[in-house]
Design goal:
By secondary structure, this protein is an all-alpha fold. It has 4 helices and no strands. The chain starts with 6 loop residues before the first helix and ends in an 8-residue tail after the last helix. The relative contact order is 0.15.
């Protein structure tokens, strides 16, 4: 992601969106946003051939992200409290 312009800005926007929907649990919202963005980045990176295709792939992965994809591809176990 270091070769793609605005990846950090995009991450900030995703974190803000998660915080807006879960204002009472900011830590959980932030961790969830980081997990979604990181998983989307990993999946986009696996399919990209360079920074241009990565940027488009990242947007596509964020758009199509769902709980099944997270459970299958994320590096963290999700538990409910």
């Amino acid at each position: 992601m270091t070769q793609v312009t605005a990846a950090g800005c995009a991450l900030s926007a995703v974190v803000a969106a998660f915080l807006a929907t879960s204002p009472d649990t900011p830590l959980e919202a932030t961790v969830s946003a980081l997990l979604v963005f990181g998983t989307a980045g990993a999946l986009a990176g696996a399919d990209s051939t360079g920074p241009g295709s990565f940027a488009a792939g990242l947007l596509d992965q964020l758009h199509g992200m769902n709980s099944a994809t997270l459970q299958e591809h994320s590096a963290f176990a999700m538990e409910s409290a």
